[in-house]
Amino acid sequence: MIISTLGEKFTHFFKKNMPDAFVFALVLTLVVALCSIIIVQASFFEIIEAWYQGFWLLLEFGMQMVLLIATGYAIALSPFFSKLIDRLCKFIKNPIQVYFMVTLFGFLLSMISWGWIVAAAALGRSLSDRIKGVNYPFLIACTYFSNNSWVTGLSSSIPLLLNTKDNYLIKAGIIENTISTSETLGSYLNGLVILSYLILGIITMILIRPKSSEGKELNDYLISSDSSKNEKTIAEEAESQELPFKSISDKMNNSFILILIIFLLGVVYTIRYFSLNGFNLNLNIMIFIFLMLGLVMHRSPLRFSIAMRRSSSNVSSILFQFPFYAGIMGIMIHTGLGESLSQGIVSVSSLKTYPYFSFLLGGIVNFAIPSGGGEFAVIGPSVLEAVKTIGSCLPTEEIISMVSKASLAIAYGETLTNLLQPFYLLLVLPIMGAGTNLQARDIMGYLVIPFLVFFIVYSILITYVPL
User: Fold this and answer.
1) Is residue 429 part of a domain?
2) Residue 416 near residue 451 (C-beta atoms within 8 A)
3) Per-residue model confidence as pLDDT tens digits over 20-76
């Protein structure tokens, strides 16, 4: 098919021209610094001071990402998860079914929380190890693309912020009261976007699937397939660490009773947390749940420790790349570049065009601030103030709808351009790329066509569909 061939050409282009994800961050740093000189006339020392201040903005988020990946992958290494995959493989027989299942599973999980994509990544890794003929870089692209649906779901940061009491927009007088998620996530527009992902998104990935998997299966990318095959299982490694005689230490290391007590305490807290806070599924409670599940699935403290050590061996890219992306974010915030861009774009907006320009702005700024909440903190106030000015002659209810639509448009744009930059690929590659020589450039080319398709879809829906 022509569309499949086109996908391969984009992949070849990215493989030839796209540098490592870390190099991408370094080049982007220089580009943003140059823009701050040209657009807001920031001085050299202002830029490097803003860069350094930004370096530490994502420390908490980076640690959360590390734990999310490690705990999610540890669950995937458990015997319980392995048995589930074996059962699933009775129904999944060929690569097309793998692409379909992983993409659909990723979409549905991401609508619950964007961090749950690690479970889809684990599923994809396990299925590709069992089903022959799967083009592995393309499967990673399917997984990464499926994470885009998070913006329509329960962890969508901007709609949740608008519905948060005493948020910074209310304190600044930009909005008077909270805006219910029924105005944003429960809107007709958001419902159509969800349907677009579940139907058009899956069809797109099936249509652009590569014709061949020759030389591109998981085993072809393993750095040392022989050593990986000869590696001890977690249970075997745990057994090898036992003393040749009975001991209290071994009993404690392999105690399921100890695990069960801690797990039950975790269950009690989790139930209490949701009863007090509602379905507030933030990163911290997700990581806590993953920790508890991993413990009980491995059935002993020692085996869980081994699983965590193995699953943590591939997160180094997050540890050193996040500060550089945070540095870029610092330049955007502290030099005023982000606010200047938002003011420039919304200044040419009208009642008809403000959603589309908000969408474009969200997509552009995302390259420098790949964080929905962080980006909105920089550009959101300026955009919403401009929207209020544009609709000043309208009733209050209509202005609220305009603010809601502009906020959704920024969120949609921010999420869509993730397909062109590899920041959140760091959430998928530590699991799916573990033990391989795969890089972002092997995957990103497959995402160009989905980006183009959904750029058109978003442009039409945002411009013509009311909330």
Assistant:
1) yes
2) yes
3) 778 888 998 999 999 999 999 999 999 999 999 989 887 887 888 888 888 888 888
The answer to whether residue 2 sits within a structural domain is: no
Q: How confident is the model at residue 1 (pLDDT cuts 50, 70, 90)?
A: low
Contacts of 21 (CB under 8 A, 6+ apart): 317, 321, 422, 423, 425, 426, 439, 440
Task: Tell me how far apart the alpha carbons of residues 109 and 146 are, in angstroms, rounded to a whole number.
Answer: 9
Of 90, 72, 1, 75, the closest CA to residue 427 belongs to 72
**Which residues is 369 bridged to in the sheet?**
none
pLDDT at 227: 46
Long-range CB contact pairs, 456-459, < 8 A, 24+:
457/193, 457/196, 457/200, 458/193, 458/359, 458/412, 458/413, 458/416, 459/356, 459/359
Asked if residue 236 is part of any domain, the answer here is no
Residue 17's domain comprises 11-222+248-464
**Angstrom distance (rounded) from CA 115 to CA 286:** 8
**152 contacts 457 by C-beta, under 8 angstroms:** no
Count of domains forming the chain:
1
CA distance linking residue 378 with residue 373, whole number of Å: 9
249 alpha-carbon distance from chain centroid: 40
- The per-residue pLDDT for 119 is 87
- To which residue do tokens 């379909």 refer? 100
Residue 3 lies in a domain: no
CB neighbours of residue 195 within 10 Å: 12
Whole-number Å distance between alpha carbons of 35 and 421: 18
- Answer whether residue 204 shows pLDDT above 90: yes
Length of the chain: 467
End-to-end CA distance of the chain: 37
